[in-house]
Write a structure and sequence with these properties.
The chain folds into 2 domains: about 1-65, no CATH class; about 75-175, no CATH class. The longest helix has 26 residues, at about 150-175. The protein has 9 helices and no strands. By secondary structure, it is an all-alpha fold.
């Protein structure tokens, strides 16, 4: 809860990836309140009242996953809507003067998008969601200790991370009112 709140304020991309990882962790714990408490809440050095609040927060996510029919796989609509918002920003940055640097960063990734679509096996998602899914798959691969495809993972990170990072930074600036997308139009 505290980690998610901090990530949401600091970096929307890290927030989304954190929630995706949390979804998988809750699934691995089979949505068991006892397992969630013992693995995610009890190890924290917080007051007992805070532990109860944290457990309730985790269980709220469990309930959302169940409500959305994503007990086995998939991501919460909340994160998918955030990615859609980020994709809308991506489209605006691709057109408006304020996105000049972003366009240059994205240009390095653009030729690899068809290959990424084949790897992710989903043609019906936006370029932004594709980038997130590729980053998350790479993150999972690293966690599982995969040694094969080291260069492919390195290439993926080197191409996608700057794009997602810059898009997330711009998202934060727009959200805080620090950037006007329509300046110089």
């Amino acid at each position: 809860m505290d980690i998610a709140q901090a990530k949401r304020k600091e970096n929307i991309a890290e927030y989304i990836l954190y929630l995706w990882q949390l979804e998988d962790l809750l699934r691995a714990l089979q949505f068991s309140p006892e397992a969630i408490y013992s693995q995610l809440v009890a190890p924290r050095e917080i007051e007992e009242e805070q532990r109860h609040i944290f457990l309730l927060w985790y269980m709220d996510i469990v309930n959302l996953l169940r409500k959305e029919g994503k007990e086995e796989s998939g991501h919460l609509e909340h994160t998918l809507h955030l990615i859609a918002d980020m994709h809308n920003l991506h489209l605006q940055l691709m057109q408006h003067p304020v996105g000049e640097h972003y366009r240059k960063t994205f240009a390095a990734l653009a030729p690899q998008l068809p290959n990424l679509r084949v790897m992710v096996k989903n043609d019906d998602i936006s370029d932004t969601e594709l980038a997130f899914r590729a980053l998350y798959a790479t993150m999972l691969y690293r966690i599982k200790g995969g040694n094969k495809g080291g260069e492919a993972i390195k290439d993926t990170i080197e191409l996608i991370s700057p794009v997602v990072g810059e898009l997330a930074a711009m998202y934060g600036k727009v959200e805080r009112g620090e950037v006007d997308l329509y300046q110089d139009m």
